[in-house]
Write a structure and sequence with these properties.
Strand content: 35-45%
Structural class: mainly beta
Number of strands: 50
Oligomer: single chain
Length: 796
């Protein structure tokens, strides 16, 4: 039915928008400022910056951080300004922001956050450094949000000065929470927000951002933001045909959504004057009478929902324009749909001579009609392969003449339900030998012509049919295999009458496999390391796959591969106080993985050491020795890693770490029973590690030299029965300028430990030194014991 003309509503002026890509930003804050509690580490060793600064005004900055620890006693916001003044602001636990109202305009301030535990004086870095001044950012203004379509809103904003910043776009749906949807690059003051829901109210606000840690306040200030309501969905599938030499029928589809009425506009092709009609929301069709015979007209349709935008109507975009001439075409007749070869077939009788194509339209239950194909003139058959078994499809066709914009009426509707062969199920290999596999499956289909077994090997030639079997067959034995090869199998059921086929699931079969490792054990070395050991029971593996998962969830993932015949692996990718499960698989040439038993372990709790940072070169050694009670903390519960070590103290560390302590018997002239390391030195004397000099003196309180450290370590390894590959001085000392200064009594020991990379050399100005007579540091001693006892796999 035709209707009255509705006046055009005001439509905002069109704007040009460019889609802004989200900008990946990771710019480090490279600062070298004194922290209130400890000297700042180099920038590369700072913790990841979880710190965000928001410039509230010229005299206030908000400092906000993420929760990253549990059981903290509180936080300290440490601030340093560009004049070198430092301040600390204490924040209670469970609070993650601080407003600093003590800043001044034009000054630069640097912040970091530390945390501490109740009852402890130790302070720990939570964030890296972030710097800003209160004039660093200008917030955006004049945010405008314009609905572009049912799934897109276009945004524009301005900056009041010539500086450019990144812009953070935030959005929330009515009743929802704010979320960041984009970070727009500098210099771009627009953004297209896509993927939205039709006829939905969205609110937007923006702020400026400098790098990824400093932000302005939001614009606008109101918590509601700027409102934009997406358009309702436009009509689709506009089509039509001439009823006579003066009348035209137009129809369309509408997917969903509330509609008060439809507006249909018509104009003569090549002109700009539109005539508008209003159509009931339930009609979705219009018959236009009294047109000029043979003339071409253009139609378009849109939907209107009165008051959907609260203060205004919500109007969809116009549909695609549909040109039509007032000339008739005969419709197709005797349309038919049926299923064959797993596809839907549509046939009809062509009754016109003036068409250029046929359009094929399709829909399923609950969906709208859509054009799925155009076939050539005089066509009477179309095969729809984009169908799914068990789904009912409806089809109709219409003849078209694109050049003249002439259309026939739609044909009648034909419906078919797609059917398919039912595939075999439960395909299994019942046993495997080096050259033979037996397959079984369960038949489901009752009208099959037969079955075919297909196989794919590693030759890259794809699937091959290896046997054709009669109806009801459910097993086959393949005896033409090669050992240690991966094969895949599937079974095809077929019906020759309609050329229908269906495939079973695919299974993998491996002929031959390695014996799996056994007796897998996982033993923590420290709170951040553990040692895995296992028994190697195979002789054809090419490597061992070390796999790990969480103790309560997740799948095993390969974390390392170790060579054939290896039986030890050290995992340094674990975290204190977490539980893990491990397994190790032997992998042969066929890439078969035969897994070991599973080993579960919980890592010890980390015991931090004051004065030792995680980036210190001997950090792992200190943590390990401290947690294994080989070393103790000094004054103030701290360690000085660079202090010189005495001979007696090093012997004590060796005896404790290697577990060589015995009943103290005998004495050196200068080691009385009251000496703190008397028991350790006497043990070392009994087993031949500590030897006296002139006057039976050991000199336990003398500084430990690097060459004496090497000699004592080598003797301890020998006494403990740990084998070390020998290295001669001629090769091991090559490239060291002070090699000749190594004392004769220590040359072999130092050469072996240098060659095995157990003892470090020293480097000054790019020159490498052995420094045999130099005083050994606590860090060097800890590193040697860590490598020989807890880390390096020395065979017993």
């Amino acid at each position: 039915m035709t209707g009255g003309v509705k006046a055009n509503e005001h439509i905002p002026k069109a704007r040009r928008f460019v889609r802004a890509a989200a900008l990946p930003i990771a710019l480090a804050c490279l600062l070298s400022l004194a922290a209130p509690f400890a000297a700042a580490s180099p920038a590369s060793s700072q913790p990841p910056s979880r710190l965000r600064l928001t410039i509230l005004s010229y005299t206030s900055i908000e400092v906000r951080w993420e929760k990253a620890v549990t059981g903290e006693g509180g936080y300290i916001v440490a601030r340093t300004d560009d004049l070198g003044f430092s301040s600390n602001f204490y924040v209670p636990a469970m609070t993650y922001s601080y407003n600093d109202f003590t800043v001044s305009a034009g000054r630069t301030y640097t912040y970091k956050v530390l945390y501490y535990f109740s009852g402890s004086t130790a302070r720990h870095d939570l964030t890296g450094y972030v710097s800003t001044s209160t004039s660093a950012l200008t917030r955006p203004t004049a945010l405008v949000a314009v609905p572009f379509s049912d799934t897109r809103v276009d945004l524009e904003w301005e900056y009041d000065d010539s500086r450019i910043f990144h812009t953070v776009v935030q959005r929330r749906a009515a009743g929802g929470e704010w979320a960041v949807v984009a970070i727009v690059a500098k210099g771009q003051n627009h953004y297209e927000d896509t993927g939205l829901s039709p006829n939905t109210r969205y609110f937007y606000k923006v702020c400026s951002m400098m790098e990824d840690n400093v932000y302005s306040t939001d614009s606008p200030d109101a918590t509601t933001g700027v409102l934009a309501t997406t358009r309702i969905t436009e009509p689709v599938g506009v089509s039509g045909h001439a009823l006579s030499v003066s009348d035209v029928y137009i129809s369309w589809e509408y997917a969903s959504g509330a509609v008060t009425y439809f507006e249909v506009e018509r104009k003569v092709s090549g002109t700009d004057a539109w005539t508008r009609f209003v159509v009931s929301p339930t009609a979705m069709e219009l018959t236009d009478y009294g047109l000029t015979p043979g003339l071409k007209y253009v139609y378009r349709v849109r939907a209107v929902n009165e008051g959907a935008g609260v203060l205004f109507d919500n109007v969809s975009n116009w549909s695609a324009e549909f040109p039509i001439s007032v000339l008739t075409l005969e419709e197709a007749s005797e349309i038919r749909a049926y299923t064959q070869d797993g596809a839907a077939h549509v046939t009809w009788i062509d009754r016109t001579l003036r068409e250029s194509n046929y359009e094929v339209w399709r829909r399923t239950s609950g969906t709208i009609w859509r054009v799925i194909a155009e076939v050539s003139k005089d066509s009477t058959h179309y095969v729809d392969e984009a169908v799914e078994p068990g789904v009912t499809y409806s089809y109709k066709v219409k003849a078209v003449n694109r050049l003249l914009s002439i259309y026939s009426p739609f044909s009648a509707v034909a419906t078919t339900r797609v059917t398919a062969m039912r595939p075999p199920i439960n395909l299994r290999s019942s046993y495997v030998e080096d050259r033979r596999v037996s397959l079984t499956w369960t038949n489901v289909e009752t009208e099959e012509t037969g079955y075919a077994v297909e196989r794919m090997g590693p030759d890259g030639l794809g699937w091959r049919e290896i046997v054709s079997l009669p109806p009801k067959a459910s097993s086959y034995t393949d005896s033409s295999l090669a050992p240690f090869v991966n094969y895949q199998y599937r079974v095809r059921v077929f019906n020759n009458a309609d050329r229908s086929v269906a495939y079973s699931e695919t299974i993998e079969v491996i002929t031959g496999y390695s014996n799996p490792p056994t007796n897998l054990r996982a033993v923590p070395v420290s709170s951040s390391q553990l040692r895995l050991t296992w028994n190697d029971n195979s002789n054809d593996e090419i490597y061992f796959s070390v796999q790990r998962r969480g103790a309560t969830q997740g799948q095993f993932r390969e974390i390392a591969r170790v060579g054939a015949n290896e039986t030890t692996y050290f995992d340094e990718g674990v975290t204190a106080n977490n539980a893990y499960v491990y397994r190790v698989a032997a992998v042969n040439e066929a890439k078969v993985q035969m897994g070991s038993n599973e080993a579960q372990v919980r890592m010890p709790t980390l015991r931090p050491i004051a004065g030792i940072y995680s980036d210190y070169w001997a950090y792992q050694a200190f943590i390990c020795l401290y947690e294994n009670k080989v070393i103790a903390l000094g004054a103030g519960s701290r360690l000085d890693p660079e202090r010189a070590l005495t001979k007696g103290e090093f012997v004590g560390m060796l005896m404790t770490a290697f577990g060589l302590e015995r009943v103290a018997v005998g004495s050196f002239a200068d080691v009385p029973p009251t000496h703190p390391y008397y028991r350790h030195i006497m043990t070392a004397r009994i087993i031949g590690i500590a030897k006296g000099g002139a006057g039976n003196a050991f000199r336990p309180d003398d500084p430990l030299t690097r060459q004496d450290m090497a000699l004592l370590t080598m003797r301890t390894l020998n006494s403990a029965g740990k084998a070390v590959n020998s290295h001669g001085p001629d090769v091991a000392f090559r490239g060291f300028s002070d090699a000749a200064s190594v004392a004769a009594y220590a040359r072999d020991a130092m050469a072996t430990l240098i060659g095995e990379k157990i003892i470090n050399y020293r480097q000054v100005g790019g020159v490498s030194y052995l420094s045999p007579g130099a005083k050994a540091t606590l860090a060097e001693a800890a590193s040697i014991i860590y490598r020989t006892v807890y880390y390096k796999d020395l065979a017993v």
